[in-house]
Amino acid sequence: MFKKFFLIFAVLITAGFFGIIHRADAALSVVPVRNPKVADYARPAADSFVSALVIDLSSNKVLYEYDADRIWVPASLTKLMTSQVFAPLQTSWTKIVSLKAEDEVGGGRLRVDTGAQLSVMDVMFSTITASANNTATAMQRLTSLTKDQFLARMNSRAKDLGCKVAEFHDSSGMNPENKITARDISLIAKAAWKIPEIRRAADTASYSFTIRNTGEKKTIKNTNELLIDPNNDLYVTAGKTGYLEESLNNLVYTVRPSQAAVKQELMVVVLGAPTKAKMFDVAEDLTKWAWKAYDWSGKIVEVAKDDFQDGSLIKLASAPEVWYVWKDKKYHLPDEVFLNLYFKGKNISIVDKTSADGLGDGGDYKFDDGALVKTGVDSSVYLVQGGDLRPIASGEAFESMGYKWDQIVTVPARVLESYPKAEIITLAVK
């Protein structure tokens, strides 16, 4: 039709991509609109960070990114995945457990003697709030899983969340072979914050508890200084820091202008800052820039039909539906699939109904010929050809066509229901 870029995306997007798209997350009640009067964010210096990402949480719209797919070492951001595997396996958060010598892996630690007894909840807060490596290592030991089994679950969950690069070789983050990207860690953190025990540990400034076998009182402080600082005009809702010599300083956090400003909540990722101070400065600057550079008011922007440019995205203020404009027609982006696939980070103009109605109805936005698609409900794979779906008979037939399995795009079944079914493919297409 008019799309020239599908094959590039198809290679990059695995079948797990759409597992991260949920109706509740993608519903665009208010999509932030770029304010043209505010200049683009200017990266302070070449070494200020290696990667950064700012996302509007309510719409998943990317407001800023810099090299967000660069592979990086997560350091203690690893603990956000460790805790996600650990938390569901707990039957009692008040259960008393002991730390052992084998939990010591170096780096930042909960400063207690070997054999110290504390609750499972104390372990969670020490790992997330204070970023203690010995309690993070203990998390794996305190489950019924072997180290290899625990790591397998961490890596499997990362794939389920839609991560493209994330790979973990230990539970504390001390291993420099661990890998993530800024985009990956945004998915991991978002999932972590949905687990109440992790969320509480990530938004708590300080936490006090008692070592049960010695009576020693411990108070730990959050490593996220943006949460602790009372004068920065930020309402931090959760966060996690990480440092390793090979990784430098890293942060992922969620933040609002105030407790009530839920619709302006952002997720901000900064990786590879040279110092902690620079990391926090950049994160704060990016946050406040985004709030200035985008408008969440939902006010209608008067855009005449003749002013629509081919390739622009539009929507009404009163409805979540988004259209793609091309040759005086508007094409519906069904269920945000194409919005997330092709147009991530692209500005969406809010227009009045008269202007939208003045465009012809182009129907649903379609995949290009050559796309390989499937739904999440069965294993059938289809080739898009001439606007039809052609089922591929078998894995042997699929591979005979020269395609790779990671070229398949998984979409909700309803997206494919509008496509006519055509002749089945049993042999390679010549």
Explain what you see.
- Helices cover 26% and strands 22% of the residues.
- It is built from 14 helices and 20 strands.
- Strands 3-2-10-9-8 form a five-stranded antiparallel sheet, sandwiched between helices. A five-stranded mixed sheet has the order 15-12-13-14-16. It has a four-stranded mixed sheet with strand order 19-18-17-20.
- Strand 6 and strand 7 form a beta hairpin.
- The N terminus is likely disordered.
List keywords for this structure.
alpha+beta; five-stranded mixed beta sheet; Beta-lactamase; five-stranded antiparallel beta sheet; disordered N terminus; 22% strand; 430 residues
Brief rundown of the structure:
By secondary structure, the chain is an alpha+beta fold. The protein has 14 helices and 20 strands.
Estimated structural class: alpha+beta
Query: What is the C-level CATH assignment of the domain at 66-293?
Result: Alpha Beta
The proportion of residues forming helix, as a percent range, comes to 25-40%
- Give the CATH topology of the domain at 66-293: Beta-lactamase
Termini gap: 22 Å
**Count of beta strands:** 20
CATH-assigned homologous superfamily of the domain at 66-293? DD-peptidase/beta-lactamase superfamily
Task: Strand order, main sheet: write it out.
Answer: 3-2-10-9-8
Average per-residue pLDDT, rounded, comes to: 85
Characterize the overall form: globular
The major beta sheet can be summarized as: 5 strands, antiparallel
Strand percent estimate: 15-25%
Number of helices: 14
Low-confidence stretches: 1-29, 300-306
CATH architecture of the domain at 66-293: 3-Layer(aba) Sandwich
Q: Indicate the radius of gyration in whole angstroms.
A: 24 Å
